[in-house]
Amino acid sequence: MRVLPNEGVPERKSELPPVIRDTEVAAFALVALLIICVVAVLYAAKAFFLPVTMAFVVGTMLSPAARFLEQRRIPRAVSAVLIVAAACAVAAVMIGLLASPVMEWSTRLPELGSLLKEKLHVFDRPLRLWQQLQEMLGGSEALPGESFQLPKIEWVQPTFEFLSPTFVQFLLFIATLILFIASWPDLRRALIMTFGEHESRLRTLRILNEIEEHLGGYLLMVTVINLGVGVATGIICALTGMPNPAALGALAATLNFIPIIGPVVMFAILTVVGVVAFPTLGAGFLAPVLFAGLTFLEGHFVTPVIVGRRLELNALAVFIVLAFWTWLWGPMGAFLSSPVLIVALIIKEHLLPADSPQLPPD
User: Fold this and answer.
1) Sign of the C-alpha dihedral computed for residues 42, 45, 51 and 53 taken in this order
2) Residue 54: which of 192, 226, 206, 219 has the closest Cα?
3) With CB atoms 3.0 to 4.6 Å apart as the test, which of 24, 150, 259, 337 could cross-link to 325 if both were Cys?
4) pTM, whole model, 2 decimals?
5) Cβ burial, residue 240 (10 Å; 0-12/13-18/19+)
6) Are 240 and 92 in contact (CB under 8 A)?
7) Angle, CA of 100, 101 and 106, to the nearest 5°
8) Residue 114: helix, strand or coil by DSSP?
């Protein structure tokens, strides 16, 4: 009997080793190149994309307020102007509270620098030990009798360049925000009608409704929480004898809109102000320590309980997204990081629902 090749040996494809096809590699490479190109364009054209993206996100957050006014028979365009004017008025009040103490302290920078240097002499011995350790490891040798010197850093101009957008960008943001709020219903309708199938239109409608609801609720809850943090910080500063407690409270409320970075910057500001304003370091560190306790309670208990009921955000995802958008667009990118993450999670939940095929559990 002649046996044919492979006769009686069943071929089981499931046991064959996985092979990465050339088409899969090409598709992955094209997607990676597309992402790199998009990030490069967003970084290079920051002056245009930042105010426009900010206007789209803030406009979506404020759309429920415009709908509320529209239900009270106020035209949509008028509602958009009123909402933007109210937001600008609140921002002007915050700037007004901060302007006077900032100008006062900026005129006293040399005096405050000398006073801070004098207060930090308590750290001369640890710093001397650190210098000796550096010398032992082959670092630069310090001059004999040399005391601790504050680093000379040209910080004013880079800080303002980093924090403040140009006037043209601000105008672009305001104009885009007003037009976006005024035309949002038409834009929603046009986006929904782009799809031909009824199921696709219905899915798009659900995504847009959920994005608008979650972003509007996020802005409202975060604003209320941050105002509470600002009021509590002002009370802490007043009770501990810090100068300008109202201004420090307003600054805390404003910086708290930037996750992680804002509270850290506020803690550093309170530390510097406390060390300069009080004769002892213990009294100077009292307000920063109380503020750290306040932000710990707010970040670990208040915000997760209130915001987490609407949409649960993974801490690692929040940190990675925050780091990326801060690197890309600075403080405004940090403000946009959480809303962008919320939008991405909503789209992911609708396009990849929980009942779709998933990986088996470990």
Assistant:
1) negative
2) 219
3) 337
4) 0.72
5) buried
6) no
7) 105
8) helix
Q: What is the pLDDT of residue 144?
A: 46
CA 252/CA 273 separation, integer angstroms? 14
Residue 158 is encoded by which pair of tokens?
Answer: 């880079």
How far is CA 147 from each of CA 110, 151, 217, 272, rounded to the nearest angstrom?
A: 18, 12, 54, 20
Where on the phi/psi map is residue 260: left (φ > 0), alpha (ψ -120 to 50), or beta?
left
What tokens does 180 get? Answer: 């976006």
Contact 236, 243 (CB under 8 A): no
Task: Go through 261-295 and write b for each residue having 16 or more CB atoms within 10 A of its CB, e for each that does not.
Answer: bbbeebbebbbebbbbbbeeeeebbbbbbbbbebb
Task: Quickly list H helices, the chain.
Answer: 22-44, 46-71, 76-107, 109-119, 124-136, 156-163, 167-193, 198-240, 245-255, 261-277, 281-284, 286-297, 303-307, 315-351
How long, in residues, is the chain?
362
What is the maximum span of the chain, computed from C-alpha positions, in angstroms? 106
208 and 192 in contact (C-beta within 8 Å)?
A: yes
Mean pLDDT of all residues in 244-267 = 88
What tokens does 173 get? 């943001």
Query: pLDDT digits over 264-315, tens only?
Result: 889 988 988 888 888 777 888 899 999 999 998 887 777 766 665 555 666 7
